[in-house]
Amino acid sequence: MSSKILFVLTSQAELGGTGLKTGTWLEELASAWYLLADDGQRLMLASIAGGAAPLDPASLEAPWLTDAGTRFLDDPAASAALAATPRLADLDPSGFDAVYFVGGAGAAWDFPVDPAVKATIETIDRKGGLVSAVCHGVLALAGATAVDGRPLVAGRRVTAISNVEEEMTTFDKVVPVLPETRLVELGGVYAKAAEPFGGHVEVDGNIVTGQNPASAPLVAAALLKALAVEPAGA
After folding, report:
1. Is residue 232 part of a domain?
2. CATH number at residue 193
3. CB of 150 within 8 A of CB of 187?
C-alpha cells in the first residue's frame, strides 16, 4: 500500500547579500524523489511561497549534478510540478503520511520562521506521521514543538549539515543560522558522519533526518522502512 508524502521546498532564491543565487539542492530532491516514486509512493511538491521553486544553480552543474538530478530535469512531469508548486499554507497537512523538507542553503532563511512549516510538522507529528528532512532542510524542525510544548527535537537524535561542512563551503559566513548549532540549542542530540560530507541519517521515533546531499537517499530509504515498504530490489 502506497503512502502520501509531501516534499517541501524553499522559495528563497537569494544567497543572502552575496549577489549569488540559491534554492533547493537538486540532488537532495531528486535522489529521494525517485527512490520513493519508483517504489510506488504518492508524492507531491510544495514550496513556501508557491509557484516556481528555485533550484540552486550550483547543483545543476558538474560535479554536483547526479544521474538522479539529470533524470529529474529531463522528466516533464517533475519539471512541471517544480514550476507550479502549491503554497504550503494552502495545503491540509493531515492528508499526508509523511513530510520531507528538502535542503539547499535557501532553506536556512524561510524554513525556520514560516508558520506553515511549523503547522505542517506539528499536524503530521500529532497524527503519528513521519517528519523528515535533510541538510539545511532540517531547520524546518527548529520552530516546531511537541505536545508538551518543548521543542520537537529536544532529547531526540538528529542530524543536519555540520558546522565543519558549513565552514568548508564558507556558508557559515552567509546563512542566517547554522543547523548544527540551532539543533543543539534546542536540546537535540546531534550526531554526524565520521568524515565531512559522508552520508549519515538519524532515526528517532517518527523523526528522520539526514546530514547532507549524500544522505538524501538514506532518508528516503529510512522513510520506506518506517512506512513498512521495502525499497525496490532490496
Report:
1. no
2. 3.40.50.880
3. yes
pLDDT per position as a tens digit, 92-119: 999 999 999 999 999 999 999 999 999 9
Separation between Cα atoms, residue 75 and residue 196, nearest integer Å: 31
How far from 112 is each of 10, 140, 144, 173, CA to CA, in Å? 11, 5, 9, 18
d(CA 129, CA 12): 27
How confident is the model at residue 199, as a pLDDT?
98
For residue 155, pLDDT over 80 is answered with: yes
Q: Which residue has 522559495 as its cell numbers?
A: 11
Question: Edge-to-edge, what's the strand order for the sheet holding 98-101?
Answer: 42-47, 4-9, 98-101, 130-134, 207-210, 201-204
Please report which confidence band the pLDDT of residue 234 belongs to, taking 50, 70 and 90 as the band edges. Answer: very low
Domain with 202 in it: 4-226
Task: Give the separation between CA 200 and CA 43, rounded to whole angstroms.
Answer: 23
Considering the chain, what percentage of its residues have pLDDT values greater than 70?
A: 97
- Quote the CA–CA distance of 124 and 121 in Å, as a whole number: 5
Count of the separate structural domains present in the chain: 1
Q: List beta partners, residue 44.
A: 6
What grid cell was written down for 89? 499554507
Assess contact for 199 and 3: CB atoms under 8 A: no
> What is the SS3 assignment for 41?
coil
Instruction: Enter the pTM of the model.
Output: 0.96
pLDDT digits (tens, 9 = 90+) for 132-142: 999 999 999 99
Flag whether 216 is in a domain.
Answer: yes
